[in-house]
Tryptophan--tRNA ligase (Streptomyces sanyensis), 332 residues
Amino acid sequence: MKRIFSGIKPTGHLTLGNYLGAVRRWVEEEQYRTDALFSVVDLHALTVHHDPARVRRLTLQAATLLLAAGLDPARCTVFVQSHVDEHTRLSYLLECTAADGELRRMIQYREKASRAEAAGQGVRLSLLTYPVLMAADILAYGADEVPVGEDQTQHVELARDLAVRFNGRYGHTFTVPRATQPRVGARVMDLRDPASKMGKSHESTAGIVYLLDDADTVRRKVGRAVTDSGSGVVYDRAERPGPANLLDLLAACGGGDPRDLAGGYASYGALKKDAAEAVVELLAPVRERHAELAADPAYVGGVLREGAERARAMARPRVDTAYRAIGLLPPA
Ligand code: AQP
């Protein structure tokens, strides 16, 4: 059976982008057809300026939301990255395999480093090495596939390169993974700034739909989405990104092809209304289930504890093999 790994960073409240680009597919498809591991990758949240109490809170909230969205611990492994030491153990070996230049070329590093500099926060070394830790997350489990949104494909490419390089130098140790993307929703854009993706750690929250937003908040945010003054509703991502984002959302939530859907609208008002209702309907059951699970943190804690035990047992043999292969003396 195919093995997959994917993760989510507790850098903010989960967004509709996270859901449509990643989580929904984990829930509806991946957990049924693969041997799947899903992790709240909390170490990655430390690569940018952070508040310790908030990261702890968001980690539990993200795990609770993954279960609320429908991940079934009887079918897949759900755990917190920092509970399994194998990730950081392997990351160091991969740092000894990666080159400085290839990390500096990463688009997300360049974007986040300039954001951190602009905010006067300094750039953490871990922001540069973040894709190496992500490679360790994937390679430790021998994952064949990594279901991610479009923004993460460059990092999965790096994981592939590192696996191939390590195997070539030290003997076959790692499966070479590949990124997979959803048919729709691979890149959900910010409603107020459709040139940027909807990102959970963005400062301006007006264009971001969070999974826990109530129905009226969703309606307000979608209702205030940026469109344009062009005539008619057409689907054109390059020239008319605002309306295209709304049509993508409508298609991702309710089905259909965004180009065909465009033909059914004469005005942006009607499009916004339908897109908002489609999002409200999609998120309502997740919000309800989250409220139930949030009232039972002991259950969530138990799922995470068992998940970490399973994950550790899966990762340890491969990481031990990598330690020997690279030239480290095993303890007597
Ligand atoms: N806007 C998006 N559209 C589609 N997919 C998205 N993903 C994130 N944003 C969108 C996918 O969600 C998964 C988890 O993302 P992550 O936690 O690794 O964080 P990220 O990719 O860096 O995205 P965020 O949410 O914008 O976080 P910040 O603001 O901290 O950078 C991934 O599969 C991602 O592709």
